[in-house]
Write a structure and sequence with these properties.
Two copies of one chain form a homodimer. Chain A is α/β, with parallel strands linked by helices and 358 residues long. The first copy, chain A, contains 13 helices and 15 strands. Helix content of chain A is 43%, strand content 15%. In chain A, α10 packs across α11. Chain A is globular, with a radius of gyration of 20 Å.
Chain lengths: 358, 358
Amino acid sequence: MRHHRLFTPGPVEVETENLQALATPQLHHRSKEFSQLFDSIQEKLKRLLYTENPVFIFSSSATGAMEAAVTNGVKKKCLNLVNGAFSKRWHQITAYNGVPCDALSIEWNKAIKPEMVREKLDTGEYDAVTLVFNETSTGTMNPLKEIAEVVKEYDDVFLFVDAVSAMAGVKIEVDKLGIDMCLAGLQKCFALPSGLAVSPVSERLLERAKEVPPRSYYFNLNIMHKYYQRSQTPVTPAIPHLFALDRQLDYILNEEGLENRFARHERMAAIVQKWARTHFDTYPERGYESKTLTCIENTRGISVKELNERLMNEYGMRISNGYGELKEKTFRIAHMGDAQVQDVKGLLAVIDDILGLE
Amino acid sequence: MRHHRLFTPGPVEVETENLQALATPQLHHRSKEFSQLFDSIQEKLKRLLYTENPVFIFSSSATGAMEAAVTNGVKKKCLNLVNGAFSKRWHQITAYNGVPCDALSIEWNKAIKPEMVREKLDTGEYDAVTLVFNETSTGTMNPLKEIAEVVKEYDDVFLFVDAVSAMAGVKIEVDKLGIDMCLAGLQKCFALPSGLAVSPVSERLLERAKEVPPRSYYFNLNIMHKYYQRSQTPVTPAIPHLFALDRQLDYILNEEGLENRFARHERMAAIVQKWARTHFDTYPERGYESKTLTCIENTRGISVKELNERLMNEYGMRISNGYGELKEKTFRIAHMGDAQVQDVKGLLAVIDDILGLE
């Protein structure tokens, strides 16, 4: 059977060369060869993220890295900015770990604005902010740069960014923006399988983590950092993913090139957005549409389930229904990772055929 | 370059067919195909572990599953049985998570005895016990059956077992022994790459987890269980590993057969132990030697580092030095996973050559 081509906002299609890299024979995680692989990945991730900070590799999904941020990085209280399912989850994670927190919740089709953040931080209550840059549930891209500039005005407030469905598809200058953690899984714009999460970690976060009462061993940043000093990880990571990540970073940095990759994501986003507005509408607030996935408001009242089933059965392609309560009210097309303009155009053309659009 | 054959107690050699299974194109973690894969793995893991309980799949290393056990399963106080590096780590994990706990620590070359456990449980202080069945750091196999029988005498005391370097190599009848969690990573006796951990979870543990104040979101057993009801996982797991695990379980259950697999591990252990006692000595207390790795006491004062370097450079094979403070005082040979009798005999023969043994 031909496998379904994934236009879902993660997992996405993985190139054959990267699948093959997964199948490299194992090496020992306490060997010189492992440390070389680790260092090679470090150096490339730093270039991808415009950072001098060590890039931590979490043997978990990105949800685990979200837990790491709030369990290590909050002494007073955390402000969670909520405008979608994944930002809501970060608030839940914070609460589940017994970390003091408040949510600033707004409507899901609206973007977080810098002035909302300033108003809350002016209370002096908070020493950390969590922001989901690109809300995979709604297709909203929050104004990271503007929000980061506001957070920077407050000396002791740390910024944690979920860049899950943006990293490696959209430029994020981590150090310039002063982001203390900027986390992502590999199964989105990296176009690799799920199984690891990555995030640069700032020096001041490592310092704060020493002052906070420990809330987890597995996600303790200082334990991880101790091992990184000798280019190892405290636990055995998913070694197949490291082989594939190293290979894919070479491709991203040296073959495609970062600027080309970001530009390709911009082009694909423009194509899908235009199509969405011609036949339906886009869900997020105007001007805050994601560059990596488009959330389409189902203004025609089509059956999204049926559309997806026909796409799968007749064309072997898969898109995503709306998330949670947005099911059938919206649907989502991912244009991220290694998907090309022609792939997206082909998908839209067959959707046109199925729905009888012109 | 020929890759080093791993006789290390994890990671171990992975068969080509399993490496290839990792390279299967991705499927979506919210698809029917994923649920079929999930169900298939469930059914096979239950057979492997002689259990009717759902087998949880942790998107983490086994260390994460250790954290899950103590954060979900302790209301009063946890008794951590410590006779090696990994049982010591479980005690640290418990403490780091703010879970009340005591360690019962004995010498590392001794096994935990059932009567030691009874004495502690008689105090009535504890409602959970952690035991590392097979201490990878010392090659000691604790008497699981006897200890489980003692724990069973106490109605509300839960038993958590780290079976990391034993599961799928040694028979563990989880339900009969009344084990509430029995956890392992895939990179040991499963002979797969690291990147996931598995553990059956008892019904009473899920009940207790509801009564315990939440200590983690990522490792919350009830959140995970909610998703398992529809054959999904809450976070995107390492899908390549699931493909390989499904394939390898078929091999273990239907091609090699469980009894044959356990018998092969027994045979390999006997060979290496005999060799060790002829030329050196074995480190653990007599009668408690591991069936999956042998920890050899360096009675000849050889340079283990040099031996391993010669093995790697001249033969492309790798064993392990002693763990932590046992470095150079001991060394470890793994005979687990898909390693065959002839592989182990070949290794010992070249060690004989290198060291000039007869």
